[in-house]
Design a protein that fits this description.
Blueprint lengths: L5 E6 L3 H12 L4 E7 L2 H7 L7 E5 L7 H11 L4 E6 L7 H7 L3 E4 L4 H12 L4 E2 L1 H9 L2 E2 L13 H11 L4 H8 L3 H15 L4 H10 L3 E2 L1
Parallel strand pairs: 1-2, 1-3, 3-4, 4-5, 5-6
Antiparallel strand pairs: 7-8
Helix pairs in contact: 2-3, 3-4, 7-9, 7-10, 8-9
Amino acid sequence: MVDAEVRIALVDDHALFRSGLKGLLSQRDGFKVVADVSSGEEFLALLPGLDVDVVFMDISMPGIDGAETTRRALAQRPELKIITLSMYGDEHYYSLMVKSGALGFLLKDSDIDEVYDAVESVASGENYVNKQLLDSMTRNMSRLATTSAGDDESLSDREIEILVEVCRGLSNQEIADKLFISKRTVDKHRANILEKTGCKNTANLVVYAIKNRLVEI
């Protein structure tokens, strides 16, 4: 839970959706909606004078899409926390949003309590991924052809191999069986991965792996 008031902006081309989300967010103590716009262009024009912490960003909008708007916004204000709003079928955009700097991923029909949790998580600098989206991302995930394609040099080849399997949702025992190593070895590698990457959970690891081009979806 964050202590200070969280200032929120909504960027989505559906007015009815924005209106409903704004009303629900405004009911939460400590949340304040400070902007409510229908396009990436409008948001970027407002941004220089806007006091905002968390941005709900639609993926697919006319004009500048969510990924490009996110990239441009973070170039101006690196401290912004972006939550991606998506519908089923938008999976091909997820890698773009991660690489553009989004921290959170939510379905538009998410329960309001989950929306609150997402805001609090990303406001604290954590990743948040809706479980259904996380399942979809991991199900469609594949390792890139060569580890040299990735930008990360802190992980060993074995750690990268285990990281990919963790992202795919495998348990430590399942990874051990697949790689023909002991569960204890996997446990040790996983602890090292978490320490080196600063990740705390699978959602963090998935975003890390995509951002560092260790996997693709």
